[in-house]
Please model this.
Amino acid sequence: MKKIILYFALVFATGLYAQKPAKTTLEVKGNCSLCQKRIVKATLSVKGVKWAAWDIPSDQLTLIYDPSKADLAQVEKAIAASGHDTKNEKAPKEVYEKLPACCLYRDGGKHVD
Amino acid sequence: MKKYIGCSYVYCAALLIYLLSTGLATAAPKAHYSWCTEAVHLGMEQQKDTIPTKEIIIEKLDEVTVEQRKKGLQKSYFEPKNVVTVNAAELLKAACCNLSESFETNPSIDVSYSDALMGAKQIKMLGLSSPYIQFTEENIPTIRGAAQTYGLSFIPGTWVESIQITKGVGSVANGYESMAGQINTELKKPFSEPLLFVNAFASQGGRQEFNTHWNTSLNGRWHTGLFVHANRRIEAMDANGDGFMDMPMGDQVNLMHRWQYTDTEKGWVGFATLKWLKDDKEAGQMDSQEGLMGGQPLWKSITSTERLEGAFKLGYVFPEMPYQSIGLQGNLSRHVQQSTFGQKAYDMDHISGYANGLFQSIIGSTQNKFKAGGNLTFDQYEELLNGSEFRRRDYSIGSFFEYSYDNLDNIGLVAGVRADWHNQWGAFITPRLHLRYNPWTKTTLRLAAGSGRRAANIFTENQNIFLTNRLLVLENNAGPIYGFDPELSWNYGGSIRQTASLGSIGLDLTLDLYRTQFKDQVVVNWENPDRLSFQPLMGSSYANSALASLEIDIPTHWEVRLAYKMDDVKTTYDGNLVQRPLQPRKRAFAQLSYQSTPNAAGAQWRWDATYHGVGSQRLVANVRNPYGGYAPSYHLVNSQLTKAFSKTLEVYVGVENATNYTQENPIIAASDPYNPRFDAAQIYAPVFGRMGYIGMRWTLL
Model:
């Protein structure tokens, strides 16, 4: 019980007094809600990224992260490794080709379904 | 998770439209979208989604743009809890008129009458009646204590925006009282409602209902709404000729005033709600000229209820951190019931207070979230039963911590624990666990386990005990609540859901298996024809429930729902473990729905027919069946046809109990209501036969 309280107090304290997180926006190529899920998952896999959202119509990825922990270059690499191109990183061909049909964004024209 | 889309969907869409129209959206659209969802979750749904909110919004917007036909019952692939969301379209299928009747089109919940006189409908879930289900209204516990028997009929159906039904134990954030499940009701929000709404309804049974809602925006941030409901039943009817009215006469006036505050830029959202209700019912023998029947005074029952309630909610989302929020909510109510049943009198005055504070944030990233908080509850009960006074003050203080994990793919988990101290029973821990696993994309497995605890308010929860002349006996064991210990149960179970498609036809198959095991229970024992005993549980008591349901979506007009249910609900009475009386072991359900494609003006036809097959039920021994027995199984059919003339005007007609099945001689010893054998609580089928109705809805956008 004491441990639970201590843990709770600790988390609460870090939640409130942690360093103010930074917010940024990147362009990430993709099409549909499947892409969205994959992009968000890849983004959150990078240490220090707290929150991510990718907007389908605009291709904009918004993320909130701890600047002392997260490296944005790392984020772009993780996204590219999952199959999605960013400004500085391109997805490897063999990964891209394994994406589901609706996610093949390089064939031009955005298709959501 | 997807089910929460339903309830925040309208709200967010409206907010979005508003933001677009004011040009705010163009200034900082992303932040507004996410605050919107977060604020909704914070303010109204603590059971938050477990994947990033933006994704939900996008899904929602997609739904808007492609105008998919929304299913009336929505289930999720991602939410660890087994939740079914009943949305507004589904609520319109029910004939009428209040929350208790909203579940008749839904196989997860069983609706039946609790007695032959008062017309109150009771609901059951996983084989257990409503005291074992935790009701919340916008996540504040409600329909407790004095409101238990008639509370569902005090929430008009038109006020309801959506309902979330959680099978198995609910969230620890809502308290320790959920045992078989949780039903949350979201009321309509002034922000998203049209300016004016009018509904009128009349049925063959002499029932008339009137609803009007008025909602407006005061400035960009403040919205207010006034909701007025009135109903009455003016004809005394005795179709079965037993000298008793088949339904009570009465009237109800029910008012709600809501204020809503939303400041998306600063991250604040708030609600204040004030409700007042007055309800009068008259039941019993039909009037006769001399005011006597067989030389005795007429057996009458008068029940008068007045309820006043105020609630507030305040939520703050950290503008820089959309995943972090603080919520505060509180509720204060007073519920006064005064009633007579023949020569018996029962009065109840219940004052209740509730306050809850909640902080939610993430650990590392949004894959790991938590909620932590605390709450205070206060209940004061004053009861007067035939001159005997029962007074009790309960208060409890508790804190909870709930952790959720989502790998953003195929695994989700919610693990919660709460520690409470209650003035009557001391300190206790309530653990609850929910797991979700998707082995393949279209398959969802869920598991849940946890405990629940509650004080049984034996008189007010079992008001059918006043409709019999049996000798009332409290065989208590020196516990704190009417001499009884609190009820304690463990619930565990799970479900498998498989979706598939056959060409364009969508199939959705769900199998639910749950068990509720009581450790402590106040048993209501009707087994002896002369007595009615409240006893502490001696031996085993459990409810096993299995439900198989199949939903078939046939584009673009038809939907079929089929379900079969088995409830094995056994309790030890006088040393014998037997099926609980008046509890069908088997139920079947079928529903066929049609809707035409609306034209540009919104004109549309909608039709549905619902079938209920109710299996045989065990009857207790009485003067008619000295050795007990079984009631026959029977079938019920309801149907409704709606014609929408435009987006603003709809007319509907329908029939309930179309096959006109009623229980023969529902009241035992009806000719002699002062005889000790008189009993109006042994009801297994409708008392009221076929009933047609007509209604209209008009909206001013």
Q: What stands out?
A: The interface with chain A takes residues 30, 34, 51-55, 58-59, 62, 320-324, 359, 361-367, 370, 372, 401, 408-409, 417, 419 of chain B (CB under 8 Å). Helices of chain B lie at 2-22, 24-27, 29-44, 53-66, 88-91, 458-461. The two ends of chain B are 30 Å apart (CA to CA).
